């Protein structure tokens, strides 16, 4: 029973930490727009928490390059499990227009496992919220909670 | 004896649940003041359940011990309050818990946690003299430090100690880390030093700190309730009005520096106490 309650809590309280992995700030502004009264993600229990140690979902925007891939890996490793990763924007998903550049590794999935891809340049706040919901659906299936 | 045991169990079980609901209402009202819809009232409980299910991660084992002592200190102080024990004893137990929270934060080399811990010490330095002054004033009126002596009074303490209630409110804002005094750590989206004193606690240990915070909310509101001990309705109204004012202050003020906090808390606390004591003697 306690396990069920904990699973319930996991679905209703995803705290997100946002990492800008070399984005042009377009997607970052859209991520922050989710917090504003218009979208108000807190009504789903989603909190933007600045600390990877408290977070359940890692939102990554922008391309990964050879300098910041270590930072990205470090942040991912600091998050206690269970955790999910969402790549946001064309750059986060695949490297976008920069994917052929000599300094770019590619999308986020080249460094850490990604659960949900949210495309767009920049991704709209609605799409980002949809992404978090899709990640939760994935978690539900993993926990065997699909009704 | 039996009633005391029942009260103690009530304090252990019902107090954190009530604290969680109050925190949930707090978040809802805060959202409403910011023209947002806000999370469900039960959100703090969901948060803690989730945190309990997370993988435990500590930078060193001292942190885990500190989280345990913090929650035991907070729970014990609520039990002592409910069973009508000594105000000074409650104060000391509360302080031991609070010191262990800081020790856990300082046990990690992370600069955010370190500065958060130092700032939490400064907050304690600001609110503890105020609490002691309030307890001393209560003892001057009732003639005893016992909580049970307060309930033997025939008229509410608020009539004799109106200014001490303001001092208590000031101390409580600092204790609950509400804006403008959310200096060592901040709830909700307005972050301070990542998460200040909480930065290095995670998963189940953060859940324990959250539960301890619920206990503290109840303790703090219980201390407020002492000022209208003659009727239950009076207690509930006084506590509700105080907490609503606390939420509004939390939302309309910006974070202040620790220097301002220390100066204003000690300065204002001493002046108000002095005036209230003179008035008490003149009566």
TrEMBL record, chain A:
GO terms for molecular function: 4 iron, 4 sulfur cluster binding; metal ion binding; NADH dehydrogenase (ubiquinone) activity; quinone binding. InterPro entries: Complex_I_20kDa-like, NADH_UbQ_OxRdtase-like_20kDa, NADH_UQ_OxRdtase_20Kd_su. Pfam families: Oxidored_q6 (PF01058). The keyword Membrane does not apply. Keywords: 4Fe-4S, Iron, Iron-sulfur, Metal-binding, NAD. Residues 24-134 form the NADH:ubiquinone oxidoreductase-like 20kDa subunit domain. Its cofactor is [4Fe-4S] cluster. The keyword Zinc-finger does not apply. Belongs to the complex I 20 kDa subunit family. This is NADH-quinone oxidoreductase subunit B. It comes from Solidesulfovibrio aerotolerans. The lineage of its organism: Bacteria, Pseudomonadati, Thermodesulfobacteriota, Desulfovibrionia, Desulfovibrionales.
From TrEMBL, chain B:
It is found in: Membrane. Its main location: membrane. The chain crosses the membrane at residues 62-82, 87-106, 126-145, 157-174, 217-244, 265-282. PANTHER family: FORMATE HYDROGENLYASE SUBUNIT 4, FORMATE HYDROGENLYASE SUBUNIT 4-RELATED. InterPro entries: ComplexI_Subunit1, NADH_UbQ_OxRdtase_su1/FPO. This is NADH-quinone oxidoreductase subunit H. It is a multi-pass membrane protein. One of its GO terms (cellular component) is plasma membrane. Keywords: Membrane, Transmembrane, Transmembrane helix. It comes from the Bacteria.
């Amino acid at each position: 029973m306690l396990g069920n309650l904990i699973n319930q809590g996991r679905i209703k309280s995803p705290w997100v930490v946002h990492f800008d992995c070399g984005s042009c700030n377009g997607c970052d502004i859209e991520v922050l727009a989710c917090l504003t009264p218009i979208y108000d993600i807190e009504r789903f229990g989603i909190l933007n928490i600045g600390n990877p140690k408290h977070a359940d979902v890692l939102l990554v925007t922008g391309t990964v390059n050879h300098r910041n891939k270590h930072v990205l890996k470090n942040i991912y490793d600091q998050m206690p499990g269970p955790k999910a990763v969402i790549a946001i924007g064309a750059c986060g998903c695949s490297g976008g227009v920069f994917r052929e550049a000599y300094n770019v590794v590619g999308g986020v999935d080249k460094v850490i496992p990604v659960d949900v891809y949210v495309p767009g340049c920049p991704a709209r706040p609605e799409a980002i919220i949809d992404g978090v919901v899709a990640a939760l659906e994935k978690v539900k299936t993993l926990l065997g909670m699909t009704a | 004896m039996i009633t005391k045991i029942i009260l103690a169990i009530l304090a252990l079980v019902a107090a954190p649940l009530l604290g969680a609901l109050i925190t949930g209402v707090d978040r809802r009202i805060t959202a409403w003041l910011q023209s947002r819809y806000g999370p469900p009232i039960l959100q703090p409980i969901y948060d803690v359940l989730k945190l309990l299910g997370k993988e435990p991660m500590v930078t060193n084992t001292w942190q885990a011990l500190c989280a345990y002592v913090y929650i035991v200190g907070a729970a014990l102080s609520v039990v002592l309050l409910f069973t009508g024990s000594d105000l000074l004893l409650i104060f000391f137990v509360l302080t031991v818990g609070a010191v262990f929270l800081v020790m856990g934060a300082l046990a990690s080399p992370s600069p955010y946690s370190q500065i958060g811990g130092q700032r939490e010490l400064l907050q304690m330095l600001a609110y503890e003299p105020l609490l002691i002054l309030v307890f001393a004033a209560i003892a001057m009126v009732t003639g005893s430090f016992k909580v049970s002596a307060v309930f033997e009074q025939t008229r509410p303490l608020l009539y004799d100690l109106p200014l001490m209630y303001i001092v208590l409110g000031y101390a409580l804002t600092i204790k609950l880390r509400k804006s403008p005094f959310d200096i060592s750590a901040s709830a909700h989206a307005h972050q301070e030093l990542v998460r200040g004193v909480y930065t290095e606690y995670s998963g189940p240990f953060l859940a324990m700190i959250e539960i301890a915070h619920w206990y503290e909310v109840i303790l703090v509101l219980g201390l407020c309730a002492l000022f209208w001990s003659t009727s239950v309705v009076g207690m509930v109204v006084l506590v509700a009005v105080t907490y609503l004012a606390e939420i509004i202050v939390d939302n309309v003020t910006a974070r202040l520096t620790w220097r301002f906090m220390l100066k204003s808390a000690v300065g204002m606390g001493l002046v108000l106490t002095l005036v209230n004591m003179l008035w008490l003697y003149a009566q």
